[in-house]
Design goal:
By secondary structure, the chain is an all-alpha fold. It contains three helices and no strands. The longest helix is centred in the last third of the chain and has 40 residues. The radius of gyration is 20 Å and the shape is elongated. The relative contact order is 0.07.
Length: 77
């Protein structure tokens, strides 16, 4: 139980670390703009698009793990 809380807290810390996800060309074009609103919007869009596949793989992995654990528990009986 303590290890699960540890992993969840590490995950939450990593989620709140600000990151920049622009390629060099996008950064060069967007830095010339005043206010940087477009650059922040592009950066957030890249982050969201990057996170979705990891979440989907995690969910599928969790279901596979859960099904394997259930089958191992039923064979031990």
């Amino acid at each position: 139980m303590k290890i699960r809380i540890f992993y969840i807290s590490i995950l939450l810390i990593l989620v709140f670390i600000p990151v920049e996800a622009q390629c060099a060309m996008c950064r060069a074009v967007l830095e010339s703009e005043e206010g940087q609103k477009t650059a922040k919007g592009i950066n957030n869009g890249i982050i969201y698009l990057m996170i979705i596949p990891y979440i989907l793989i995690g969910v599928v992995g969790y279901f596979i793990y859960r099904n394997k654990k259930k089958s191992n528990d039923s064979t031990k009986l």
